[in-house]
């Protein structure tokens, strides 16, 4: 019952704008919708809005900010007030700061990440249109995900950031990872939609970005994604497997700046009254990689 | 932003309770959770609540009622008030009227169907549990859908019933079918979740039931469903195909009383700001059966 | 233990050469490898030889001939002798009769169809090459089958044509359809490889062509094939389903001249010692279309 | 054109007969067809012959022998003669040495492994039967492969063992791995059927067993296999991925004695005239694991 509709965009810091654009357009298969000297704007084929990924030229990789789309400006104002009451530093991003975007509010969440909320963005539409549409357009390239799906961030205080997203922004916690004694939460999976997660946090350094997940249709599309990555000689960190958490099917890899990407399929549908699923830390390997049953070092360590 | 969480149950009228239970348990693969002399209660393996399908002994097939689960009794009261204001006949279903259910409100929607809203039902849980769960349980039988997914009903006044569900109950219209001149709406696909539809109406006689859709995971599960139906010599009305509307993958068939069932996979994810997709009546065949591109007579005529 | 390696090519009569080429190249997704004023030569992406489909300009649709590739000219001579002994009319097709082909022998089988055997054809290779190849090439178009898989022909005397292919050419019968009294064979599925069939015959008029089957990888590729056909407004005669016979997954449709095509996936692997599977005529519907359990009229009647 | 039809059986040495039988029956999903004090005999659901896996009580794991089925005793004699001429040590295994088997010939191949050829084994059949069969039987358990598919063995002299299988037994080499200078063959993939491989050798110690591959239908069945292994807490060495070599989809794991198993799907179809595909040693990682692009230590080292 939140007024937040979904994850709307992630702005990623990349070191070589052209090389990154080539990767996100030809390997991931996003469409470029605009660019200026500092940023390239991209959308997935099945998204209606102007962009969901912004590549921003920077000296180091990472996430500049992620943003959630809110139903309307009135609801945005209500949320702004609640966020300030929670004690977050908050500012306004004015119209025209980035291409095709209206006003946004920007604030620092308890893990130090910058998050924005907005309701105004240019409508672009899709190539199948909205009248008697085909199920998919011609001329798809690369992995061709349907949309940006979710992000995973790290932070020190998982309890507080979870409280912020659930109590202030109306997310539900679909799953959590707790220490074996049950005393501490070290992972938190948060949904604002009926998908298994729109955002997740795991214990780690503040302000760090773990990955952005793109939605692909099914397990065969995960295979196709992995094939395309290998054809393009892109290092696959985690080859196709299933998550215990979300039950989703997945492959992980890195963009040219070292930002981790995921092609993700088929997590379950969840509802507001579903109980939060609990994973105990001793089973975290199984929770993250259901087939491997253990974490690999890079997956915990490689953050941007 | 509705307080309605999802389709919660459908009570189907069946002529032979035992034969129907055998079908829903061994072919569909639901679990029986309770029964009395008049009704058998069933749930899908991935549902937490006590039941989503009730089979009720009757002289003729059809739908006794369908019900949506609301977040809490307070929200239920607000909705009750709105429904009365809209002018629907409304009554209270008292605690204990059916097994494992609390109070509900029951009302007649503009197409004459009986619909209930409730927030209280016994929690049963699933066989994988909520602590370090496996992605699926052992000993699944039959088609083994994850959950009840949606229903399709027929009625004369699609415009008004759409207005009722959107304005009063907070559904969004994901897709619609209109006459070629655009004057009249003859199909309406309504979502209260992020799935492509939780309920749909097509032009036809009032009070009639077209089908109940069960969610299966993917296109291979649709094949498995069709194989299982054929192994059990159950007539498949529509062999595996894709819908234009919802993009879902589907197979249609009938229960022993003639109530139509569907195994449905993979419709798109939709959000509150997505435009309503329009199908024109001349393309209705493609909209319903994307590969066949035309309707078959039985699909319009066989209603219960 | 036959010296015949596989179905090598089918020459189809088509009424409009350009329109047909457009269909076979852009919808089916074959590559054009040569053409002259009368014929266009095509291969599938995963075939090494110069062509597997020849389109020949004609006044009526149908199959000019189909041909099997034999291991070497010596074995071809042995087979030539056996075929003559069986009593077939036989002639030599000289080098240069068609592009990229060497000599062939041509003969009329008991159902009146023209069949050729050859061992010499130009080697073209595939886009993935034979050194450290990727599993699939870039820039696939349309349905993009791996290869020509099999053909189905009709004829009056199924027993004799079966005897010809098994006794003279070394095929095995993987499956057969017989009248309920077991007296007469009305369908015969013949394999020269370990696939479920390379050639099949069903009772019907002599000299007629039922369909050419192209191999696609899996059930999702069958869905993709059907989607592509619908996107191209090509009539799908049989939407995605499973065969009882061969267990394969299938979709049937027609080329612009009315020659039936099939995208076929996943039939079983068979061996020389496997028993012939028997279908009785009363179950022929289930044998052909496992989900529908009955034949449709067009499938028996539309022949070229 | 060989008289060898397929890989017929592998006899595996296992240390705990009951524990191993439990694994092969309930996790792999084979059926037990016979047992005595020393051996348990198993078949896959889609195999007609009495057994394809024999578990033999032993002090150490490994392969006692593997055997190929030959068309008839006459052809067996011809092969016996050729094998002796090649210089292999050869003996007769007399009728009754193992349950349900007739006579066999047994010989040591150039890598020191014991191999048998036979034509006589009891016919058991399948649960779907050979008259109007369903595509799959009810009550499948575990991974439920269709059949034993292939084996991979190690040895010092890959060239000679390849020459033995191609020149003496009529196998074709579908793929090979060579040193970068092209001087030495270090991997050899051999087919006697139209599948991508029935037997393979990689450079390593003589007499060692690398894995037995079981055929599953498709990429979703590979996922199901991996899920089942994880549910049963069985270590998965290689999570679902694609092979460059054969293009097959795969998951690797171990039986309770440490013998490696594979669930394998979807390799290509190959023919006698196809060129041998070459992988250079620098690309061996990509050849074996197309997504990972490098070998893992255990995969080379863990042999039985």
Question: Would you give an account of this structure?
Answer:
Chains A, B, C, D: Pfam families: Diox-like_N (PF22247), Glyoxalase (PF00903). Chains A, B, C, D: Its EC number is 1.13.11.2. Chains A, B, C, D: It catalyses: catechol + O2 = (2Z,4E)-2-hydroxy-6-oxohexa-2,4-dienoate + H(+). 4 copies of one chain form a homotetramer. With 304 residues, the first copy, chain A, is α/β, with parallel strands linked by helices. Chain A folds into 2 domains: 4-118, 2,3-Dihydroxybiphenyl 1,2-Dioxygenase, domain 1 (Roll); 147-301, 2,3-Dihydroxybiphenyl 1,2-Dioxygenase, domain 1 (Roll). Helices cover 20% and strands 36% of the residues of chain A. Chain A is built from 6 helices and 17 strands. Chain A has helices at 17-28, 73-86, 158-168, 219-231, 284-288, 297-301, and strands at 4-14, 31-35, 39-43, 53-57, 62-70, 90-93, 104-108, 114-118, 147-155, 172-178, 185-191, 199-203, 208-215, 236-242, 249-254, 260-265, 277-280. In chain A, the strands form 2 sheets. Chain A has a 9-stranded mixed sheet. Chain A is globular, with a radius of gyration of 18 Å. The model of chain A has no long low-confidence stretch (mean pLDDT 97). Chains in contact: A-B, A-C, A-D, B-C, B-D, C-D. Chains B and D meet through helix 4 of B and helix 4 of D.
């Amino acid at each position: 019952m939140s007024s937040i509709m979904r994850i709307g965009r992630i702005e990623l810091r990349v070191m070589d704008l052209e090389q990154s654009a080539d990767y996100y357009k030809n390997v991931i298969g996003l469409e470029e919708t605009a660019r200026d000297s500092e940023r390239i704007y991209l959308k997935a084929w099945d998204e209606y809005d102007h962009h969901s990924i912004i590549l921003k030229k920077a000296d180091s990789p990472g996430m500049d900010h992620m943003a959630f789309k809110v139903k309307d400006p009135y609801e945005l104002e209500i949320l702004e007030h609640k966020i300030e009451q929670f004690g977050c530093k908050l500012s306004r991003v004015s119209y025209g700061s980035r291409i095709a975007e209206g006003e946004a509010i920007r604030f620092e969440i308890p893990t130090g990440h910058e998050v924005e909320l907005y309701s105004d963005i240019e409508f672009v539409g899709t190539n199948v249109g909205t009248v008697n549409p085909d199920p998919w357009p011609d001329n798809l390239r690369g992995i061709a995900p349907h949309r940006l799906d979710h992000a995973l961030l790290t932070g020190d205080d998982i309890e507080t950031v979870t409280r912020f997203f659930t109590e202030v922004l109306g997310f539900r916690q679909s799953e959590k990872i707790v220490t074996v004694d049950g005393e501490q939460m070290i992972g938190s999976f948060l949904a604002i939609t009926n998908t298994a997660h729109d955002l997740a946090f795991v214990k780690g350094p503040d302000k760090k970005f773990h990955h952005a997940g793109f939605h692909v249709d099914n397990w065969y599309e995960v295979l196709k994604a992995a094939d395309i990555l290998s054809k393009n000689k892109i290092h696959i960190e985690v080859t196709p497997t299933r998550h215990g958490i979300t039950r989703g099917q997945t492959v992980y890899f890195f963009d040219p700046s070292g930002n981790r990407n995921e092609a993700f399929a088929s997590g379950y549908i969840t509802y507001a009254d579903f109980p939060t699923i609990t994973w105990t830390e001793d089973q975290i390997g199984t929770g993250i990689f259901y087939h491997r049953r253990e974490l690999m070092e890079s997956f915990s360590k490689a953050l941007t």
